Structures are given as C-alpha cells and as structure tokens.
Give the backbone structure.
Amino acid sequence: MTSSIFTDDFKLEPYWWDATPRPGLPPRSIPASIDVAVVGSGYTGLHAALVLARAGRSVVVFDAEDAGFGCSSRNGGQISSSIKPGFDELSSRHGEDTARAILRDGHRSLSWIEEFVRREEIDCDFKVPGRFHAAHNPAQYDKLAHQIASQPKGFEVPAHVVPRAEQRRELGTDTYFGGVVFEKHASLEPARYHQGLLDRVIAAGATVIPNCPVTAIDKLSAGFDVVARHGAVTARNVIIATNGYTGPVASWQRRRVVPIGSYMIATEALPAVLMKKLMPTDRVVSDTRKVVYYYRPSPDRSRIVFGGRVSISETDPLKSGPLLMRDLVGIFPELADTRISHSWMGFVAYTFDTLAHTGIRDGIHYAMGYCGSGVAMASYLGMRTGQKVLGLAEGRTGVDDISFPTRPFYTGNPWFLAPSVAWYRWLDSFNR
C-alpha cells in the first residue's frame, strides 16, 4: 500500500481528539504540602482524585504529558466487565471466595460506570449497544456457545449465541463463524469521557499539573517527598496511576506491568448505506483471536474505528495504519478503496496473571494492569483507591489481597514481547 491510502487531511492523532483536543490547562504552582499526590492523569488517577477532593482532601495530580495523553484518550471506547480469566481458572489460582470477589468487581465496574456517567451528566456518547464477540473458526464458536451455556451460578451475564447463518444481522461479513452477543457491554467516546471527568476533578478543587513528570518519591517519617520537574511537594499519601506508562520512579510496579502498544485507525467518512450494510447495529466488536481485533462504528456512524496489534514489535502508527487497513479489508472487502483519516497508538498494561491489581507497597497506593479492558475497571479501581486512601471499608476489592507477580530479570522492558506475539499469531494461523 502507498501513501494514497491516507486522506489529504490525515492525522497521526486519535480520531477522538478532533472533537476533544488535549486540554490546555493553565500553569499552576506546586504547593509546599498536600494530602495526596497522584501520579498519572488518566481514568485511574482522576477518579481517585475526584473521590479525595470531594472528601475535602488537598490533591495534586501530576502527569508527564498533557492531561489524559495516554490510553485514556486513545482507547477504542469499548466497555466490558474487564475480567479475562474465567471462574474456574480464578478459583484454581486464588480459591472460590476470591474468584467470586474478583468477578463481582468486574460486574460492578460495568454497572458502576454507567451510573457514574448518568449521575455526573457527562456528555460522552455513552450507550449500551452490546458486544458481538466473533468466532474466528468453528471450534471457537463451539467454545463460546459452551461458555454461555455453562456460566457460573450467580455470575450469569445476559448473552446469546449468533450462528453463522444469522451473523449478518450483527456484522456484514462472512469472515467469522458466528459468535456471541454480550448484551450489557457498552461504549463511549473516550476523550470526551476523560474531559468530563477532568472538568469535575478541577471543579472539586484538585490541582492538575500536566507536562510535569515526577522524578523521585522519597519516604519521610510522615508521608513522602514528591519531586517533579517544576518543584517538589510533601504529601501524606501517594497514588501511582500510570498503567502502561509506568516509569522508573515506580520501579516495583513497573516490574509487574508489561506495556503493549495497541494500534488504531479511523476510516474516512463512509456512505450511510455502506455503514448500514457492514455494521447494521451500534454494537462494539471483538474476536476470538489471541492477537485480537476490536472495532466499532464511530459515535455518529460515519466511520469504522478499528484496532489491534499488527506487528510483533512496537512500530510507527504511520506503518501500522496500512497494516490495520489491510486486516480491515480482509473482514470487509467492500472497503478496498477506502482511505485512512487517522492512525495512532497507545500503551496498555498487561500483567503476568492477566488481572488488574490494586494495593499498597512501601506506603504507596497503586492501581493498574487492566490488560486492554480498562475503561470501566480503571475508573472503578481508581474510585476504590480513593476510598482506600480515605480509610473507607468500601474501598476494598477482590484484587487487593492477591499477589502481583513479575518474572526474574524483568525490569519493565518487555524484551519477550516480539516472540510472544509471534507465537500467538502462529496459534491463530492454525485456528487454535
């Protein structure tokens, strides 16, 4: 593919930033002392800050880039229950009680974010269209059908199978072999959601300081000395909320999350009749590949926003865009002559046990590791972390007391990523 694949106004920025560019916050001075310092201004950090500021705590939120520069404004806006391991696997690892607590938090995060957006009146195109989870081979369809028929008691989710013969009611392609509709999965416009959250954090009295990376956190007899690019502050509590952008200042957490680039494109505006044919509903879509694709109509149904991983190593969105378009055309051949208007990427944080984690390490609170399903869970665990800092019992979650694993010699640089992705692609190629 050549440069002709890009529109004349092509941008190497998220499509969402067209309507909601990164906020240009005015300069703010750093106070001498505060109650809570939050490192990271994505969903996790802002939700924690909101709880704390509304409880009367003095809060400063630091970010190395513009507010919400990371995946909070770069994701696909898909919302699920966020828990990847099933009940049996969780029970085997952690026991049934903890497994139930983890699944309960996943379910709560999905309902909680809907209630939060409604209560706060955040205009972010929040919808509950459901998810079509497509089977990329017949064996995966059978597996999905079995999973839906045998959901753990007490954790059943509204869902129904869609055989291949009925698939075009959900998606205008014969690429897949049927799938499952998860009826309560939702969507939103991620940058507008972040902006609405940011507005409420600032209105609550918290200070948000962008382009001011934290360079050191030193333990004091009572609290912490937090050193940033533009000054230092003494804080009673510190929250690390950096997820896929966790740096050396939080070395213990950095050793436990694997930053993985997730790449996205937006097509140019498509004819309404074509959108209706290809994506007849507003459902978000994912598939059963180990190297997964995820996509959806834009909120105004003018484009397809398509994401996935296209390279065994990190690459330039200028290079990933044509590769993603190639894969999109593989699903929808009707798009063969369609151009790309936007191509971008962001770092998600995977963990070695594919679970999000919260906790306290050396007196420092943290929440991270959403494994690509962080819109609801990052928001929910950020809120719970704020409650924990306040000493509230309701701040406890199912992932509080489980170990946060790492690997020997891993320091935050995922040298093993390329061979891992290659392995998973090989498995996908053999329909495993």
